[in-house]
Structures are given as C-alpha cells and as structure tokens.
Design a protein that fits this description.
Radius of gyration: 16 Å
Helix content: 40-55%
Largest sheet: 7 strands, mixed
Order of helices and strands: HHHEHEHHEEHEHEE
C-alpha cells in the first residue's frame, strides 16, 4: 500500500467528505480536542445573543452549530455545507434543535447559497475560506446577507507542512485583505495559541 496516496486520499476527505472515508473524517473532526476547542472559541468571539440569527458556512460535523444554538436560544442557527455526509452527521448531533426548527442545515456549496427569508446578525466560517472559489466575492455575498452592523468571524489554522505562527499571521492578513475588499469594516484579529496558532478575523457590515 502506498502510504503517500493514502494520506492524500484522507486529506481530500477533510476538504470534501464523502462515503465511508468522509464519515471517518467527520468523526475525527468531531472528536479531536483541538477542533472542538477551535470551534467553541470562534463562537465565543461572535458574542451571540439569545435572539440572534446566525449562519455558519462549512459546518462540518456540527460542533460550532451546537454551540451557536446553545447561545441563540430564541433565535435561529442556519448552516450550509457542501458535503451530504456532514449534513447527516451534524443533523444527528443537533437532532433536538433541528426538530425544534432552531437549527436548519442545508447541503450547498459556498458559491450557491440558498435564499434566506431574513438577514443575519452574525456569520462565521472555520477553516473553509481557502476552499471557496473567489473568496472575496463570496465574502461580499455574505455581507449582503447581514444586517447593518452585523458581525462576521473567519478563522484559519494553517494545515500546510511546517506551519508556524508566521504562517498564521500571513493567513490573518490575507483574510483581512479579502474582508476589506468585500466591503467589511473594523477588522480585528484574535489568536488561539495552538500549534500552529488559530487566527480569527472579526469584522462588521
């Protein structure tokens, strides 16, 4: 067995989970402590209020969705993900909130978002921006979905071999540039000290 090919195949599953390999990737994402810590940290930065309407793009196994719904107790949490495997896993993980219609999950790619009936108070994405086609254009579309003064959080933990704090800092600057190109204002960067560090860029409509 060629181990390099196996590693590449598994890496692809973390980008676009499908089939049995995708289910395994989802299990890893849901149970790896650093993933859980990263998602909960990003949610905490968004300052979600009970009546907020929130959207997560690329929700994976639904860890952040669960944390968002725990905070938006009188609001609604929407999620879109391009993987049907992740939609199923996240739906099971958030079954009670889905039944109560407080969580609504949809399979859709970032460049073909569904129509939403009302604007959002907050939007977030964790480690997915690099997979979006024309990310600045996608961010502009998300800005159009936000209320005036609405908040966005875009987080990244670089996964390239040999990634360092400097790699994370460069990723943060790239996100800032894309957010500003999309029309967002008042950007700021927060850092979670993992290895490599997680950076989260927050901005407002």
């Amino acid at each position: 067995m060629n181990l390099d090919l196996v590693k590449k195949a598994m890496a692809r599953q973390f980008h676009r989970p499908s089939g049995m390999g995708g289910r395994l990737a989802g299990w890893v994402m849901a149970h790896r402590s650093s993933n859980r810590r990263r998602n909960r940290w990003v949610v905490s930065l968004l300052d979600v209020r009970p009546a907020d309407r929130v959207l997560e793009v690329g929700f994976g196994p639904g860890i952040a969705i669960a944390e968002l719904s725990r905070r938006a107790t009188a609001g609604v949490v929407y999620g879109v993900d391009h993987s049907d495997v992740m939609v199923r896993q996240a739906t099971r993980r958030n079954a009670a909130a889905v039944r109560a219609r407080r969580v609504r999950l949809v399979q859709a790619p970032s460049d073909r978002l569904p129509a939403f009936d009302e604007p959002f108070d907050a939007v977030m994405a964790v480690n997915t921006l690099g997979m979006w086609p024309e990310p600045a254009r996608r961010l502009a579309e998300l800005r159009a979905l936000l209320k005036p003064g609405g908040r966005i959080a875009i987080a990244s933990q670089p996964r390239c071999p040999g990634a360092t704090a400097e790699t994370s800092a460069r990723a943060a600057q790239e996100i800032i540039d894309q957010l500003r190109e999309a029309g967002f204002a008042r950007t700021r960067v927060e850092t979670l000290p993992l290895k490599p560090p997680v950076v989260c860029v927050l901005a407002e409509h």
